[in-house]
Hints:
Blueprint: H1 9-15, H2 19-22, H3 31-37, E1 45-49, H4 55-62, E2 67-72, H5 75-84, E3 90-94, E4 107-113, H6 122-132, E5 133-144, H7 146-149, E6 157-158, E7 164-166, E8 176-182, E9 185-191, H8 194-202, E10 206-212, H9 218-223, E11 236-243, H10 249-256
Parallel strand pairs: 1-2, 1-4, 2-3, 4-5
Antiparallel strand pairs: 5-11, 6-7, 8-9, 10-11
Amino acid sequence: MKKNKYDDDRFFSQYAQMSRSVEGLKGAGEWHILQKMLPDFIGKRVLDLGCGFGWHCIYAIEHGAKNVTGIDIPEKMLEEAQKRNSSSFIEYKCMAIEDFDFQPETYDIVISSLTFHYLESFINICRKVSSCLTKGGSFVFSVEHPIFTAYGNQDWYYDQEGKRAHWPVDRYFNEGKRTAVFLGEEVVKYHKTLTTYINSLLQTGFEICELIEPEPSKIMLDTIPEMKDELRRPMMLLISAKKKVNLQTDEFQSIVN
């Protein structure tokens, strides 16, 4: 995805008003779960794929990371990251995630938040992450859940009275491009099955540590009336994995090639 919707002035203005943009991590509905899945950052070199405003980058530094590289393609995102979450230990790079190519064992931890559903190939990303991670290194990420992305338009089916009847799921095994409406604009995303997410990790030298379909926090359920509908279907998928410690050289070469 070489061009990005987030560099559109109107769309970015809408995004900047979302709670996760204004409040940072505490405004992200999945943070109460994702935070517990993150590894120990002390002394670690961290890569954030799709860093956005840099909230996860600064969190890693505040929790002892040695240095952090955050990459993303929208220039507006990175401008905000520099304003809100700058540090001499954070380097923000403007590049497409599909194009990153770091030296082997450059990082100890790779994280990513709600980014990979914008990319067509997940296994290619896994190969790159496996290559740049140290053995035993952590790979923790969130994506939109396959049930959420399958149908495409990412909206409820409404009954004749305009009430939310159910969440449509269709074309589940037909992976590929979907056009959703997000913040009033059409956005291209790529649907992948749960099988693709898991097998791509296993085939590129990772061990699965945790897989969680997060529910809203009790605070959100109590304070935001429409949040109760988020218990009717999963919106996100969180996965924590580790690169195998005993990955052999020939096995590694077969992965990266």
